[in-house]
Amino acid sequence: CTADVTIVETQGLPYWYTEEGSQLHLSQATEVYAATLPSGRVSVLKQLEQILPNIKPADSVLWSGFADGSALVEVPALLINGPVLGGGAPQIPLGAKPLAENQTFAALLGTEQRAVISQLASERQSVAAVFGVRSLPDADSWITTHAGEARGEGARRIPDRQESLNLLRDGVIGSFAPLLSAAALTNTQVPMTQAMVTLVSGILGADVAAAGRRLDTIGINVSDIDSARMAMDNIATGKS
C-alpha cells in the first residue's frame, strides 16, 4: 500500500447509541480526545469535527491511549454490583418499580464502584507518568466521559448481557493488558488492574490477557524504559 493513511484514535465513544427496532438512535456524549497516527495531522481532526463536534485534539496516540479510561469505568460498573456493593441508582420503596429514565449506566456506579475506579485511575496515571505522559483525566472526569449522564439525552443505556461480556473482553485486551505490559517494564505495581483482569478471565473462562495489546505485540521488544519511550515516539510520528 502506497497510500498516505491517517489513523484517528479517540479516547472513547463520541456518542451513545440505542437500538430501537430497525433504528439506531445516537445521542452525543461528552467531549473526547482524539489523536492521529502519525501525530500532528490536526487538519484531519478539524474535518472530522463536522460530524463529530465533541472531539478535542490530543498531542499523540500515546497520550490518547493512556487517556482512554473506558475499561476502568466499564469493568467495575459491570462486575461489581449487588446486595453488598450497591449501585448509584435512587433507592425506591419496597414494591415500587424504578423509572425507566433512571436505568442508566451511570446508575450502576455507587460509592464502592467509584472507589475501585479511583484506584484503577491512580495506577494508570502512575504508569503513564513513567512514560512522560501527564495531565491525564482524573477519576471523576473519566466517569463523566465513559458513564454518561445520570438521565436525559446524554445518558448511556445499560448494555445487555452479551454486550457486557464483549465490553469486559475488550477492556482487558485493549486497555488493561497493555497497561500491565507497560507496568511490568517500569516495575510499577498495579494490583487493582491485575485483580480486574483475573476476575474477567474467570468469568469468561479464558486467559483474555494473553490476546491483549502488549508492548511486544506492537513491536516494542526492549527491556528499558528509555528505549521503550523512543520506540513509542517513532511509532507515533510514523517513523516505524
Report on this structure.
Strand 2 and strand 3 form a beta hairpin. 44% of the residues lie in helices and 10% in strands. The radius of gyration is 19 Å and the shape is globular. The mean pLDDT is 84. With 240 residues, it is mostly helical. Helix 3 packs across helix 7 and helix 4 packs across helix 5. The strands form two sheets. It has a three-stranded mixed beta sheet with strand order 1-4-5, with helices on both faces. The chain contains eight helices and five strands. The two termini are 15 Å apart.
In short:
It is built from eight helices and five strands; from the N terminus they run E-E-E-E-H-E-H-H-H-H-H-H-H.
Strand content: 5-15%
Q: Considering DSSP H and I runs of 4 or more, what fraction of the residues is helical? A: 40-55%
SS-derived structural category: mainly alpha
Q: Flag low-confidence runs.
A: none
- The succession of helices and strands, N to C, reads EEEEHEHHHHHHH
Strands ordered across the widest β-sheet: 1-4-5
Distance between the termini: 15 Å
The total count of helices amounts to: 8
Large-scale geometry: globular
Beta-strand segment tally: 5
Radius of gyration: 19 Å
The overall pLDDT average reads 84
Instruction: State the major sheet.
Output: 3 strands, mixed
